[in-house]
């Protein structure tokens, strides 16, 4: 688990002022090669592992996983996952309570906010592809 000191150092290393969205480059520096764990209202929500080439692997709270890609769009970071047809866009910010990601729809924040609960380098324990029937 990441210590409060390490989390503070991580936040201070991000080149965005409080409330200012991270640029794609800053997000890439923060995430690439790491796993970010997110919580919602104090409960574990999921985790995402980030790879070179703006690829990712999201692990849902139930342990299932989905491969994805991300790209910058309209001041946010958008994601598309292999098993879904929709796109999700998030605004990643350093806020007074800590680092957060707010879901964005039609260019506006929705109020649905995930908090970064920890960051580590251990790969996600995602199962391989489904085989058989």
Describe this structure as you would to a colleague.
By secondary structure, this protein is mostly beta strands. The chain has one domain: Lipocalin. Helices cover 14% and strands 50% of the residues. It is built from two helices and eight strands; from the N terminus they run H-H-E-E-E-E-E-E-E-E. An eight-stranded antiparallel barrel has the order 1-2-3-4-5-6-7-8. A hairpin with a 2-residue loop joins strand 1 and strand 2. The N terminus is likely disordered.
Mean pLDDT: 84
The low-confidence parts are 1-17
Which series of helices and strands comes N to C? Answer: HHEEEEEEEE
Describe the largest sheet. Answer: 8 strands, antiparallel, barrel
- What's the level 1 CATH class? Mainly Beta
Keywords:
mainly beta
In terms of topology, how is this protein built?
Blueprint lengths: L3 H10 L10 H8 L3 E6 L2 E9 L3 E6 L4 E9 L2 E6 L5 E9 L2 E8 L2 E13 L13
Q: What is shown here, in short?
A:
With 133 residues, the protein is mostly beta strands. Helices cover 14% and strands 50% of the residues. The N and C termini lie far apart (37 Å).
């Amino acid at each position: 688990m990441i210590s409060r000191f390490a989390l503070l150092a991580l936040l201070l290393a991000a080149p965005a002022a409080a409330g200012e969205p991270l640029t794609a480059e800053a997000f890439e520096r923060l995430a690439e090669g790491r796993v970010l764990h997110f919580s919602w209202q104090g409960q574990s929500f999921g985790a995402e592992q980030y790879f070179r080439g703006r690829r990712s692997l999201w692990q849902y709270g139930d342990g299932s996983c989905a491969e994805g890609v991300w790209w910058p769009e309209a001041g946010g970071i958008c994601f598309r996952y292999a098993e879904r047809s929709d796109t999700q866009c998030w605004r990643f910010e350093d806020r007074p309570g800590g680092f957060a990601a707010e879901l964005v729809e039609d260019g506006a924040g929705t109020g649905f906010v995930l908090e970064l609960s920890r960051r580590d380098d251990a790969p996600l324990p995602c199962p391989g592809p489904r085989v058989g029937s």
